[in-house]
Amino acid sequence: VQIDMMYVAVLWEQGVVRLSVPLRALKAASQETRRSLLLAMLVATLLSSVVAFWFSRRASQSVTEVIKSAEQIADGNFSHRAYLSSGDDFDGLVPALNKMAASLGEQHAALISERNQLKTVLEDMGEGVLVTDGQARTQMLNPALRTIFHADTIQIGKPVIDSLRYNELHTAIQAVLESGIKRQVELQIFTDNQESYLNVQVAPLKEGELVIGTVSVFYDLTEIRRLENIRKDFVANVSHELKTPLTSIRGFAETLAQGLVTDPKMTERFVQKIQKNAGQLQNLITDLLDLSELESGRRQLSLKPVPVLTAIREILDTLQERIHQKQMMVSVSVSDDLAVYAEPGTLKQILTNLIENAIKYSPEAGKIDISAEVSSLDEDRICEISVRDTGIGIPEDDLPHVFERFYRVDKARSRDMGGTGLGLSIVKHLVQAHGGRVGVESQLGKGSRFFFSLKAT
């Protein structure tokens, strides 16, 4: 039977059907099939290459974008955000990268804020601060430390001993670096011919148990030491001032009590001595109370216009007998209408102290000039009142100290005259309580001029 140009022999042999095709046709079909397969493989390869290239290029662009975003964040641009134009396998990475950038930005802002706060605290601290590393090299310091040591040459990264040449400080820092235990040391320094006292607290800086540096805080004790010395001097002076009249009173009183003095005139003299020393004690105690009240700020002044000339005349009337005894000449150059804002009693106390001093320290037939001048300062009228004498004068070295408590140029003479050594100190505090200033000019052997200023009406 012939089917489609092919001969097929159908044989029935023991139930078996045999089909046969010509070998040439089979070869031709096989070659055609091979060509088709090769073409299909070539097309598939080309297509897969194109697809792979497209995906590779897209992935490469995504990687490049992610790398650029990471570089922006690494450079400190924490506001930058990564972005991909289409979804791919990097869709999970981009949000994570942006979240990391936001977190880093918050942490960076917090660190900047803490650093600025620390910088502000350090710069505003009155105490000096010095930070060193593990080799005692300066790492950080604040302006107060430069002010304390008057040093602008302290260099970061240099050993502390090269800038601050104080062995006690260097020894304390080394001890803290070695032991990890804080130390305390006191320094006595001299800057610009001034003596200062410092208390230094040196503490370790640690990372875990490892000491990586130190931080030293410098407390200025100069004012405290000065006040301690003033207190000691004050106690010593008060003790001495009280002891002298008390010794005299006790001596005269014991002599009288034992009946050793029978002469009425001598007895009267002893009684006068007792009265004089008792009066000196009373004056001293009164001055001490006044000074304590002024220094504590408990004394409240009620200021009002006070005519200067009237106050001066009242004081001169009170002291007229003493002026007459020494045959002194007093001149007053003050206008009738001049007035200052003051507490009347306080102004008289100031003037009385100054005029009494002029009388005490001027020779017989000496001269005292009392004057007042008004000048303008900003929008205020300032009245300067001065008391000039022709007395013994004050040595130049003593001038800065005359307003200190218990300071006397001639201690023996001042005490014999009944002075407590507190009058000028009280004058200074009273004038300052009025918002004014006080001063002195003097030449040894030629006299002195004490002056103070108050606000004029």
Characteristic terms for this protein:
457 residues, alpha+beta, 5-stranded mixed sheet, 5-stranded antiparallel sheet, disordered N terminus, elongated, 21% strand
Describe the protein's architecture and organization.
The protein has helices spanning 23-74, 93-124, 143-149, 160-163, 167-179, 222-257, 264-296, 308-318, 320-325, 344-360, 411-416, 423-433, and strands at 2-3, 6-7, 128-133, 138-141, 183-191, 194-207, 210-220, 304-307, 329-333, 339-342, 367-377, 380-389, 437-443, 447-455. It is of the alpha+beta class. The protein has a five-stranded antiparallel sheet with strand order 4-3-7-6-5, with helices on both faces. Strands 9-11-12-14-13 form a five-stranded mixed sheet. α7 runs parallel beside α12. It is elongated and about 180 Å long. Residues 1-15 have low confidence and may be disordered.
